[in-house]
Amino acid sequence: MSDSDAHGRADEAKAFAVFQPRRGRVVALGFAVATLLLFAVIAVLLPGPAQGGTWRTGDKIFFAGVGVAIAFLLWRFASIRAIPTRDGISVRNLITTRVLPWRSIVDVRFGGGDPWVTVELDDTDTLAIMAIQKADAEYGRSEASRLAALVQALGPSAKSPDVTAG
């Protein structure tokens, strides 16, 4: 394998790396762990009828379950990502996952008051890509630029790979 082949593969791997937030991921995972611990400790320490309180076992289990539900939502936020391939991009946001072919993305926006990248689709719909966030500052801007470059290279303005010069 030549140096240019290795360099080309490294560039391609870098271009198609998974988009993930940095700050939001760390904060969400930290709060998920803290939430689990806090709700578990409180559920154990709630005074039951034997201690003169009114909290029964079912109440304590429900309270701990609320902590698990909150931690799950925080974990889900920490697991948002966008996975680019040569065919398109799979966008996993907080609730939904959507696969978009590159040709359906007509514009990439990372400005205004939006906390993350939004893409305009050829059907006039827009989709937030929560994996690229303003909270990540320069890293977020560079990731938005990388996404825009992928859209430019593989999107609707790109020449069809099936067309050969004649």
TrEMBL record:
Residues 85-137 form the Low molecular weight protein antigen 6 PH domain. This is PH domain-containing protein. It comes from Pedococcus sp. KACC 23699. Keywords: Membrane, Transmembrane, Transmembrane helix. Pfam families: bPH_6. It comes from the Bacteria. The keyword Membrane applies. The chain crosses the membrane at residues 26-46, 61-78.
